[in-house]
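To whoever is on call:

I kicked off a structure prediction for a single chain this morning and the downstream step that reads the tokens threw a length-mismatch warning. I double-checked the sequence; it's 171 residues and nothing unusual in it as far as I can see. Pasting both halves so you can look.
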Amino acid sequence: MRLPSAGPGGADPAIGSGRRLVASNKKARHDYAILRTYEAGIALLGTEVKSLRAGRASLTDAFAQESDGELMLYGLHIPEYAYGTWTNHQPRRTRKLLLKRPEINKIISKLDETGLTLVPLSIYFANGWAKVELGLARGQRSYDKRHVLAERDANREIARQMSRHLKGIKL
């Protein structure tokens, strides 16, 4: 019996297909108004990739910042790999974000504006590569959050009434 051959570049064909979410930062979408999103690669060590593939990561308290002309990700918690040895990584080390130079320059110029920050929204695997979705965000005040929640509830009620009307249900 022959085993399936590896895909392009010797990669496992099961790993290289599609997009698989590892962790998402729901609180960031609640606390910030996301103006624009970016996709970036992350420079990781081997045990970090294995830990991510096991679905273990936390984006709470994580943020991205410019350091020496590069974008770095701080506060991302990737727990130590369970089967790692002395080569295991530090769980909260600073990680470099991989973007093209013009994109980095554009993001850095936007970060110089007051009130804007770069927050990670999710970590996922896209075609076998670890990626992070970054959001250029502005902090929301509590009354903005209440307004968004009220608007969402109103839209949900409108949709409910339209559905009842189309089905011919009367109250």
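Update from on-call: the warning came from a stale cache, not from the record. Cleared it. Sanity check on the structure: Helices lie at 26-31, 46-53, 101-111, 142-167.
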